[in-house]
Amino acid sequence: MLQDRGKRRIAILGSRHVPVVSIHLVELVARSLAQEGHNLITSGAQGVNSAVIRSVLDVDPSRLTVLLPQSLDRQPVESRDQLERVLHLVEKPENDELPLPMASSLCNQEIIGRCDQLICYAFHDSETLLSSCRTAEDMGKVVSLMFFD
Q1: pLDDT value, residue 7
Q2: Long-range interactions of 20-25: CB distance < 8 A, separation 24+
Q3: Distance set, CA 114 to CA 20, 110, 118, 133 (Å)
């Protein structure tokens, strides 16, 4: 896919809890895709999503869209500085009253609807992420699922 000359909208989603060595792999993939001219979509959580944001902001901030499951005010303080640098940030204040897992699931569905391809980094018990991958496959999206365990 990296050598495909067509520009794609690629969603990268993943776990909040990631081994440090794996973060470097996520950053490398995200950076390479952005340098190739692809547009990346992710959410605002720590871990994988934060690594994607950091990498694409370093390459070309215009190539990044971040959809939050709730409003920016509901995001952890440590995430807000990074998120405030994102040019294309979509907040969902209408989900502020929902439990975070439900809001995250809705957010992931919207992200999948906006992409051509999904790359997901998860653990075998990451129910929300695995459900998102099944949804993407059902929609006919190209799905690459990589496990940390």
Answers
A1: 84
A2: 22/121, 22/148, 23/47, 23/48, 23/51
A3: 29, 6, 10, 14
* Total-model pTM: 0.91
For 118-144, write each residue's pLDDT tens digit: 999 999 999 989 999 999 999 999 999
Pull the structure tokens for residue 98. 């929902």
CB count, 10 Å around CB of 136?
24
Strand 117-122 and strand 9-14: pairing? parallel
| pLDDT band of 149, cuts 50, 70, 90 | confident
Q: Which domains does the chain have, with CATH numbers?
A: 9-147 (3.40.50.450)
pLDDT at 3: 55
pLDDT tier, 4 (very low <50, low <70, confident <90, very high otherwise): low
